[in-house]
């Protein structure tokens, strides 16, 4: 990971400015570490099963895959996709759909474990229902 020189005392805004200097790869690693730290802090109040489910819920595709996906979507909208790019877009879409299905399963399992509705759980942990255009 890249080293960033910062002052000893940092506000959250200063920390964000420092983090914005990271490369995409280092940013992805940093975000994963922050999510793990958050999960560990919550783990003190959560069971092992709840912690594992939250880790699954917070899992996402890599930054590079997100960027590639956005570029392919733009090309598709402009009707400029090659056959190879169409296959790649389909592959990424399938990966995302599989990950989202696993995420919903983990959310439902966590809601059941906590004895609350899925909507209430999503509100509690700050997840908004997806909107599709």
Account of the protein in words:
This protein has helices at 12-19, 24-43, 48-57, 63-77, 83-114, 118-125. The protein has one domain (20-125). The mean pLDDT is 86. By secondary structure, it is mainly alpha-helical. It has six helices and no strands. The protein is 70% helix and 0% strand. Helix 4 packs across helix 5 (83-114).
Topology:
Blueprint: H1 12-19, H2 24-43, H3 48-57, H4 63-77, H5 83-114, H6 118-125
Helix pairs in contact: 2-3, 3-5, 4-5, 5-6
General shape: flat
Order of helices and strands: HHHHHH
Q: Roughly how many Å apart are the termini? A: 37 Å
Domain tally: 1
Low-confidence blocks of residues: none
Helix content: 55-70%
Radius of gyration: 18 Å
User: What count of helical segments does DSSP give?
Assistant: 6
Percent of residues in beta strands: under 5%
Tell me about the largest β-sheet.
Answer: none
Overall average pLDDT: 86
């Amino acid at each position: 990971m890249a080293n960033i020189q910062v002052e000893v005392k940092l506000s959250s805004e200063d920390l964000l400015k420092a983090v914005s200097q990271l490369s995409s790869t280092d940013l992805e690693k940093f975000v994963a570490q922050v999510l793990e730290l958050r999960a560990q802090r919550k783990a003190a109040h959560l069971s092992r099963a709840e912690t594992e489910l939250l880790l699954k819920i917070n899992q996402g595709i890599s930054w590079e895959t997100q960027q590639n996906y956005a570029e392919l979507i733009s090309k598709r909208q402009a009707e400029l996709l090659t056959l190879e790019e169409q296959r790649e877009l389909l592959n990424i879409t399938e990966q995302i759909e599989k990950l989202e299905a696993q995420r919903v399963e983990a959310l439902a399992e966590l809601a059941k474990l906590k004895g609350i509705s899925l909507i209430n759980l999503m509100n509690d942990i700050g997840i908004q229902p997806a909107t599709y255009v």
